[in-house]
# Entry
Amino acid sequence: MSEKERLVELRNIVKIYGEHMVLKSVDFDLHAGEIHCLVGENGAGKSTLIKILSGAVSPESGEIVILGKKMKTLNPRLAIEMGITTVYQDAEIVDSLTVAENIFLGNELNSKMPFKIDKQRQADETQKILENLGIDLDANELAGNLSTAEKQMVQIAKALHRKARVIIMDEPTSSLGLEETRALLTLLKNLKSQGLGIIYISHYLNEVFEIADRITILKDGEKMGTYPLQEVDLNTVVKKMVGRDTALFFQRKKVPIGDVRFYVRNLTKKGIVEDVSFDVRAGEIFGIGGLVGSGRTELVSLIYGALRPDSGEIVMDGKTVVLKSPIDAMKKGICFVSEDRKKYGMFLGRNVVENLVAVKNKLSRRFLLNLSEELRLSTQTVNKLSIAVSDRDQLIEELSGGNQQKVIIGRWLLNTDAALYIFDEPTKGVDIGAREQIYQIMLELVENKKSIIMVSSDMPELLSMSDRIGVMRNGRMTHILQNDGLKEEDLMRLFIGV
Amino acid sequence: MPERKNSNQVLQKGKKPLYKNQWFFLLLAEVVLAVITGSINPRFFALSNITNILEQIAVLGILASGMTMLIISGEIDISVGANIGLVSCVIAMMIKNDVSYFWVVLVALILAAFNSLLVGSSSLVFKAPSFITSLGFLSVFRGTAYAITKGVFQTIYGKFEALGLTRLWGILPLGFLIGILIYFLAHFILKYSKLGRHFYAVGSNPAAAYLSGISIFRTKLLAFLINGLMIGMASMILLSRVGAAQPTTGSGLELRAIGAVVIGGTPLSGGKGNILGTFFGVLLMGIISNTLNMLRVNPYFQEVVFGIFIVASLAVSAFSAYAGKGVFKKAIRQSKEG
# Structure
């Protein structure tokens, strides 16, 4: 290894988002002519690490060395000039231009006539690059007609045309079919033999084991180690990806579980959620786990009426319900705390009270608001959930992440007829203190015979809160497991399907 | 961890200093402007001139009230002026032909509301910004007005005067009182009704509003409906006061209304704002207009002043939105990188 040129080196990289340390002094390096795979759970810090390398975000501290040169600052343009290209799933390809025009976009070849682009020469050179890479594409094809995989290949070709030395690929195969994946992996091996360095991020460990020279494992922002492929096996990698200290697990109280209150049968939304069936009982927390993009959020959106299913039925208290929109679900007592409170929850620019009573008001039949009742209820909620708020006119965006989340949850607690609560990533971007409080709120709900469906990417959360866990993979619920003695690594194996 | 409060105690009111309110600055500007103008031309403070100002801002105030609700819910209508032109031409022709005032009032309100709903529904159904659809309908309304009047001035002298020319106790114009009434109504809707709350919700975050069970389509359409009714009301008062209508009647009023709303502290991005700000915004518009007359500024130049004023009010609203959040710098940085 030592005779090979070192293309990239990251030393002691630290990145903090808000109150969260997402990278804790991580080292990483890449040699010429190798494929270095980066693996880890959702939120382990893989994407942040490559964003730092591609200049999209800057680290709090640490060193970035590219081609032996220490970089003081790095931005996307500079990174590309230094020969580091990130291939995204869809971006950066202009659909209305041909393959050749896309590759030469930004540094077009001029013909002898001023302002006129030499299209023929561009097409010829593109064809040469494509042939060289063994990509079977016509340089004059419109990019809009290409598949996702082919677009990725065009991006790679473009990177090579720009003399890239390092190619970063973040989950390139998550929306590709088997054959396209094969073709892409072959291409990557080909690039490797031409002396390029490739950083490859994927949840699919079998791909990783097929192409990797070295594997670096991240967990909760920490590097668990870098291993040459020969020195590790799949089991070790999975174990290192998870395997946390028991202190991270929340010790929850068990609550007696009642009868089935809610179930779905063969719920299908073409291409997103396929044939999902499960039930939830009174007093039960039903966890849903899986990788990002496995269809978890889409599944709960179907249950909440924010998406319409193509087929299947949703049954509540013995009656089939048809949900045309969220209001229908609300009236049936279904509550939904979405995964992204900023995008789907908070009314920015409005105060805490208005944000708290939104659902309560919508469900009342009156035309006029009852302002004193609003104030009483929101005071009560603020006290009960100990939301730190200075006064009733404070805007919701001025609160901390944990308090914002408590406001959004509190909004649904005011719906007294609620029967089923859906929590999508209930503690995302929330500090430890607020996190435990949110768990307490959830436990109080199940004690009062409510049912909870909880989607979570946080493995300790999923394992410590759920009574049962449904595993989603590629839009299907592949397993439903009773949560006793379940281990992180077992679950992880089911998530990635190995 | 905040300290526990007694259960009978409610959250206290926020302490917002007076100077942090947009309307406070407007009031300040108005006083300064009035004092300056008055010292140059003392006739500014004459009772007749003040009555005159009140009369002039009545129509603008009614339009701005409707526009406030529309902008809060995240939409806009720039066909207001053309809508007024069409409505006042239609009702002027009806009055000329001695149609009963009952039908005149009804047609004014319904036609204006229908037009506004056309703008709104086309924007919502075709998922096009209402700025663009209203720009299209502006042309439709004005063209229709030209077609039905054949471009001829519609005069109604001596008829339909009560609305625009009545002055209670010889001082207070009736139109102004109606305007005040509508301010109160709009304030009531925004502050005390579920509908008003929904306006803020869909303007602030449509996705969150949808997930809270609010119908975005219905809410926004209601904002357009109310806006239309205000336009109908304003058309009648305007026609009654002027005594004549032509297709260009009311043109330019939409920009003044939008300007008054924005300078009153309601950002074009929606989800924020109140009627009190709009009231002072309208008043400022009226005083500026009157001042320019008092100081004998060339009327063509007045148009220029209003145009600049509106752009300046947008700038103020943009800067106050960015203020203190570093968003502005970030936006600039991003546009450089992008």
User: Anything to note?
Assistant: Strands of chain B lie at 154-155, 167-168, 172-173, 244-245.
